[in-house]
């Protein structure tokens, strides 16, 4: 976010550092992007299949409020075999602390798998005590 343009190098490990969240609001009759710094009791899931905002109170078994859960967006090798260390940028961004932390859902033996996608079921279909994240 320093305003510079960088050339992509596939040999360099790329990891997510931050997120900026915006919402569209009507201001003086025009739609404008307004930065959002709090999600309150909601969380956002970002992935290659789709993104979704949910109420964390519907998923108390591990979904924390004011967080962005994200999966790896490295799709360079979608049409070919995945290599070790490909899908490793999977984590949670905490808007309160302005930092990311890895989300270890794959384990070392599966880090060469394709990037995971989020399955976000309706709250009525989740048995009590079950987790939201399925990869």
Automatic annotation (TrEMBL):
<feature type="domain" description="KIB1-4 beta-propeller">
    <location>
        <begin position="15"/>
        <end position="94"/>
    </location>
</feature>
<dbReference type="InterPro" id="IPR050942">
    <property type="entry name" value="F-box_BR-signaling"/>
</dbReference>
<dbReference type="InterPro" id="IPR005174">
    <property type="entry name" value="KIB1-4_b-propeller"/>
</dbReference>
<protein>
    <recommendedName>
        <fullName>KIB1-4 beta-propeller domain-containing protein</fullName>
    </recommendedName>
</protein>
<dbReference type="Pfam" id="PF03478">
    <property type="entry name" value="Beta-prop_KIB1-4"/>
</dbReference>
